Amino acid sequence: MDLVVVLVLCASCLLLFSLWRQSYGKGNLPPGPTPLPIIGNILQLDMTNLSQSLRHFSKTYGPVFTLYFGMKPTVILYGYEAVKEALIDRGEEFSGRGHFPVAEKANKVQGVLFSNGQTWKDIRRFSLMTLRNFGMGKRSIEERVQEEASSLVEELRKTKGAPCDPTFILACAPCNVICSIVFQNRFDYTDKEFLNLMDRFNENMKILSSPWIRICNSFPVLLDYFPGSHNKLLSNVAALENYVLEKIKEHQESLDINNPRDFIDCFLTKMEEEKHNKECEFTISSLITTVHDLFGAGTETTSTTLRYGLLLLMKHPEVTAKVQEEINNVIGRHRSPCMKDRSNMPYMDAVVHEIQRFIDLIPLSLPHAVTRHIKFRNYLIPKGTTVLPSLTSVLHNGKEFHNPEKFDPSHFLDEKGNFKKSDYFMPFSAGKRICVGEGLARMELFLFLTTILQKFNLKPVIDLKDIDVTPVANGFASLPPYFQLCFSPI
């Protein structure tokens, strides 16, 4: 029996080695470090800080190189020129969604984040139109954000200037905006259903940002046969999607196609319009996944940026003082901030941009894939090959930003103090796959941060020199370290 086991193991290894050689020799891929059979380049990568490993390899192999995460090749784009050439200049060819086994395991291939082909194009187009206030009732999205900003201020007042961890409160605000858009109504911050949603989204972001998930994506077999935090993530996704399904059923019972109240109503109306189309992409299943995508992309990402932003503003009181002076001059202390104010507030605009640039929230974006066999910079990349654009290499480019590793709003100001745009500002990625919620996120960050600084001073509970702004996780997302602060009413 022992001999049989040995023979089976040997045969399996030979088969895997054969498959690896076939994959490794496919096409004329960009250069890169020699991969080992089966495990690829995993041992040569720092899975806790992949951006640092990519910087190291780019010095040896240039701006376009190949790494093997397991047995499959991944083309890395490093630096603004390579990222722009691929995602913008040749956007259609690089518009596929790359292999993401954890998402595929959760059956999330129908929504707007992980789908491909016509499904992705139809759902994305519909989502963009709806988020731009198409058929969204009487209240604009800006009004919904302003309403939530007021509720956020009231919650912060309840802290009475005592030290607090802002994580939960800052997560509630953007989540409630999505709830208002998707479900029509926002939740009270003490609502049990709402608290359950918040816990699951927060937990999933932490799990996604762990090295374990990147290992699982490199070796998908782990998802089926090994214990680990991925099982909790999949359980949370299932629970969230069941919750969305119940909400959809409620909407179906009270739907008025002539008076859509929210995103779900708009989607159900679209389903009714397309019911005779046998190739229709608008189904209950795709609606569930799309709503989950909107929450996943529009809740934790924005709340993490807000939290990291407050940490940076607390670390740099001179920046906060300039922002508050600008708020006083343009808005005053009593009127609610609005998006029209942004054009008159170049410093605040620069601060929001610098927060996003500095924290580098999603260092590698989500994986792309080429939609056909292509020739790129004299390399041949086969259809379906995964492509990872390093957003870090763009946002922290030393030629564009004079001191990229330092938090400095002047990166987005000209010599006269006017706001200065930069083509290198790509926190939402770029091209065809740019974040569908970019406009909403920009609005939330400006209105939430401006409203907070209009009403409160930020007081640290430790010495400024002891405030650490180094991210504690740099996998899928860069998460700020734990901190407390005091919101002192002005």
TrEMBL record:
Keyword vocabulary terms for this entry: Endoplasmic reticulum, Heme, Iron, Membrane, Metal-binding, Microsome, Monooxygenase, Oxidoreductase, Signal
A biological-process GO annotation: xenobiotic metabolic process
UniProt binding sites for heme: 435
CDD domains reported for this sequence: CYP2C-like
GO molecular function, one term: heme binding
GO CC term (a single one): endoplasmic reticulum membrane
Top EC class for this record: oxidoreductase
Residues making up the signal peptide according to the UniProt record: 1-25
Localization annotation: Endoplasmic reticulum membrane; Microsome membrane
InterPro entries: Cyt_P450, Cyt_P450_CS, Cyt_P450_E_grp-I, Cyt_P450_sf, Cytochrome_P450_fam2
UniProt-listed Enzyme Commission number(s): 1.14.14.1
Similarity section: Belongs to the cytochrome P450 family.
Listed PANTHER family: CYTOCHROME P450 2C9, CYTOCHROME P450 508A4-RELATED
UniProt-recorded name of the protein: unspecific monooxygenase
